[in-house]
Amino acid sequence: MKDSATVPGKEQVQLELPASPQYGRVARIAAAHLALRRGFSLIEIDDLRLVMDEAAVMLLGPGLEAERLEITYGGGAGTVTVDLHVVSQTNIALPVERIERFGVLVGELVDSYEIDATDKVFELGGRGDIPVVGDLNGDGIDEPATVTTDPVNSSGL
Question: What is the overall mean pLDDT for the chain?
Fold first, then answer.
């Protein structure tokens, strides 16, 4: 695991794991640890753990012939971004059922995620998004979210 702070207040951690579902726990623990260090509440950390578990199920399930899982954690104070990429010698796409399952189970826990079924990539927070945490809907609960900086796809929070 590489941990580098190239910009003051921001860290990037890279992790490479064997493509086996039992290593999903390592990815989840790393994300939870970074969220804790960045001031997330216990509820937010539990939500992030669930998202990471479901991402591992989606990306590392049977039939994809994956070799390894490359993960990049980013963000800064109060934020966590996660990019997961499955490295494989085959061109087998993620089954639609797995993508749908992910959306049903945890889609509402995050404001922004992207899944590339062909390249088997999962991104929590899109490219150009600024991760934020706060009470964005007025319900009194701080939740992770992203603000997009892409002028083409900009719709606010």
Answer: 76
